[in-house]
Design brief:
2 domains; mainly alpha; single chain
Length: about 120
């Protein structure tokens, strides 16, 4: 065991003002470091968002028409009639009837070919 004398103890002892000064210095350094780290984290997050914004935006814009068409249907696959508006002309109705008739003929032909 090593005992130290008063003079040696004085070499390792600090005045209160010196201790307070060191405490203030450590507080200032740690606050500054924390602030710098927070700024860097914010900057990194902003850069990540910016880098990933354009590809996402482009995907949305390129597929907007598909999503718009899909919104005409309910989740169960039925037509959302709230989207329907306007009137059909007689020509459009006649054309639809003709097309439906053609589909029936085509279906008969396909069924006949299969048999």
């Amino acid at each position: 065991m090593h005992l130290i004398g008063q003079d040696e103890l004085a070499d390792y002892t600090y005045e209160k003002t010196q201790i307070d000064s060191k405490d203030d210095s450590i507080y200032t350094d740690s606050t500054s470091y924390a602030f710098t780290q927070a700024q860097e984290a914010q900057s990194n997050a902003e850069q990540y968002a910016y880098d990933n914004y354009n590809p996402i935006k482009n995907t949305v814009e390129m597929n907007q028409d598909v999503w718009n068409r899909a919104s005409v249907f309910n989740s169960d696959g039925t037509l959302n009639v709230d989207w329907l508006s306007g009137q059909l002309t007689d020509d459009q109705i006649a054309s639809a009837g003709t097309w439906n008739g053609q589909v029936r003929i085509l279906m008969k032909m396909a069924f006949t070919l299969v048999l």
